[in-house]
Amino acid sequence: MESTAELEKPEVVRKEQNFLGNFVRRIPLHLVLILIIILWATPTFALLVSSFRPAREIATSGWWTAFEEPSQFSLDLYRQALTRQGMGRGFMNSLFIAIPATIVPIMAAAFAAYTFSWMNFPGRVLIFIIIIGLLVVPLQMTFVPVLQAYNRLGLTGTFPGIWLAHAAYGIPFAVYLLRNFIGGLPRDLFESATLDGATHFDTFFQIVLPLTVPAIASLVIFQFMWVWNDLLVALIYLGGFPAVAPMTVVIASQVSSLGANWQVLTASAFISMALPLIVFFGLQRYFVRGILAGAVKG
Predict the structure, then answer these.
(1) Most distant CA pair in the chain, distance
(2) Which secondary structure element, helix H or strand E, spans residue 123, and what is its range?
(3) What CATH number is given for 81-296 in this structure?
(4) I need a labelling partner for 115 at 20 to 30 A (CA). Which of 84, 131, 185, 221 fits?
(5) How far apart are CA 231 and CA 252, in angstroms?
(6) Residue 243 host element (H or E)
């Protein structure tokens, strides 16, 4: 029970004391978080510094020595990376792969999530469990059978083939997240829509989609960054043909089989990171809200 002296203190003073007390108690937590951020960001910062150094200096000294002679900074590695043959086409191929491979699985997952949440049909729970079970299947197990099917269908080395592959790999997680989010929406909304004569398509496009923007934005970030940064799936299903090779394949080909000229990868990495960073910061206000909502609702 609070003492009389405490009760007699002005409300503003008590709030300031509580704030200071909470801040002092959280100092160890803040220090740990700052340390984790520093440890996590140091390799990226080192890569950024190295990308502005001459190749000879990168090979002979550590990145931290760059600040001893700031005059050595140059854009030579960026010039080499941007002028390499195929970089422009690789960027456009990456866009042409990533945009459909992001939109298709998310829209398909949104329809499926609404179906599993608010439509009754035989085997609904079993089908949902099977789809979610695909999350534990390693990608490497699918490469041989899918590639054999692609060879028979003529999809190897084509954009539709890589779109289908990325859509199939992305749908299970998208269905899981969106189903939890959509399933947590108030039932009254759907009952009111039904009484007003709305069809399932009307309900989905006019009620569900606007309310699931945070979760969809989170999935857009995940799926776009995963597809944009993918190298393995692109190599397997596209085969490295220059006409369809994304930027990751082009960047990997900048280094010879013996590892020569590896320094140019420092600049190439930041060139490839530019667009995903724009997407992330453009949608980051939805990111945490969408992930948390999809994780706790069900």
Answers:
(1) 84
(2) none
(3) 1.10.3720.10
(4) 221
(5) 9
(6) none
